[in-house]
Specification:
single chain; alpha+beta
Length: 65
């Protein structure tokens, strides 16, 4: 069993992987050149994550996102 399978089988990760699978089950637009995961803390001390597709990126700039 690979790492991804182990993460998916953990009950604590189930909601995250269901959300991610739902987003990625359809083919992404050919215009999307990169994907970013934004992880941030909300005002009520909870964490949120966004999945963003971008139309451009700079592979030579570590801070392009």
């Amino acid at each position: 069993m690979g790492l991804l399978d182990r993460l998916k089988s953990n009950k604590n990760n189930k909601d995250f992987f269901e959300w991610l699978d739902l987003l990625l089950k359809n083919e992404l637009s050919s215009e999307i050149k990169a994907i970013i995961f934004n992880l941030y803390e909300n005002t009520d001390n909870k964490w949120s994550i966004e999945l963003v597709g971008t139309f451009s990126f700079n592979k030579d700039n570590d801070d392009w996102a």
